[in-house]
Specification:
Blueprint (H helix, E strand, L loop, with lengths): L1 H19 L23 E4 L5 E6 L5 E9 L12 H8 L9 H10 L5 E4 L3 E9 L3 H14 L4 H18 L3 H14 L11 H6 L2 H11 L5 E7 L3 H12 L24 E5 L5 E10 L7 H13 L4 H9 L7 E6 L4 E10 L3 H17 L4 H18 L3 H13 L6 H11 L2 H11 L6 E6 L1 H8 L6 E3 L2
Parallel strand pairs: 2-6, 7-11, 7-12
Antiparallel strand pairs: 1-2, 3-5, 3-6, 4-5, 8-10, 8-11, 9-10
Helix pairs in contact: 4-9, 10-13, 10-15, 10-16, 11-12, 12-17, 13-15
Length: 469
Amino acid sequence: MKTIILAALATFISISAFAQNVTPLPKDLPPYGPEKPLQAPVVKSVTLENGLTIWLVSQPGLPKIAFSVAVRGGYSADPADRPGISELLASTLDQGTKTRSAKQIAQELQAAGGDLGGDTRKDYTEVSTTILSSKAEAAVTILADVLQNATFPDTEVALVKRNAADNLRMNESDPSFLASRATAKALFGSHPYYVNSPTQESIAAATASELRAIYSQRFRPDQVAMMAVGDFENEKMLALLKSKFKGWKAPSSPPVAAAAPVTAPPSHSVFVVDRPDSVQATIEFAASGPLRGAPDFAATNVANAIYGGTFSSRLTNNIREDKGYTYTPFAMLGTFKAAGAVFTRADVRNEVVGPCFNEIAYELNRMATTSPTDEELSKAKRYLVGIQAIELQARSAVAHELATIWVDGLPPEEIGARGQRISATTAAEVNAAARKYFPASRTAIVVIGQEKVIREALEPFGLPTQTLK
């Protein structure tokens, strides 16, 4: 989820920044040209006898290949007394195998034109690399070794723990990080999805032996999917992957259990995280949303774009363009295997915390009660279809998207079907989704800043207020 949200936010901010520096367009422009939706890749899907899922996308031309490996079991599968230990697992995965040191792994993979990345999300851990197609065999050899034979040397784990502790201290100075962490707690309560980072306590207590045990439990072929996108022939790549992974056996023990569905809605309350001496506040509204495979997911996407997910959205026009309360507000959908969410965030100066809160609530309720205009509907759909085509130009982005689709239990065809469903969405469907997901009364509100300022500003709204640590 963290990567998806940051990528979407970066895209939105870049578009916002660009929009400020151009001259307003003339009013007599010709009509839009035809839509150019994503040209959905053709995916070859194979499951090996050991349970390993392989999705291949052959794209001849640029001589590079992107690999993305999804391993079920992320933050939500972490032991209760080791929240966020999956992040340490991902960071130490390439620090040594039975036959290679961390230095050898790095050097051999760099010789193939890439390096290894590990990232943790609520439902899975992703291991990725992009390499030269001419070095595919060497790269797959390293990848197979890491996925099957990682050893988590004590000295390397100790170093990663020190770096993780430093990184967490740095993150905790960032109000955006504090908001994301607090919102997960407010939205999911005691459900395992409340975890989106390790704690200092879990970092300090984690041991190399624990990481080895978690690795042995999660890294098994029947719980792993490998995506390969790039310059290769499907049959040759499949033969290479079979040769490197055919000896990988799934243990007889049951796999990590998936997170249970999130059923309880969040409390319509204000959750305050005190940030002493802060001259501004970060306001985040969060509500339950649809699963990615839900029939109304496309309509909710369109509703969100109209409400706050684009630079020309209702929310941006209100609290940025009209009132100047914030520089770049944004709204987006969060999707996980067992839950969906609708998020709104704005960074505002202390003097306008109350007025901005009021306007966000107003726009949420306006979205839930007023139909979009034909222009709003058209612009939102064109934006969503177009931005998907732009974002998935990179092979690594396609590989990541396919990994996410697999984790969510959807077929590979979903990568193309999403845009088609958005294009076909009607105003009536948007209205229904907005009524269901956008009323302000469904939201939990997290505010990061000076607690005294926040409480005084929001007192007139009469909502229950509590402090989060």
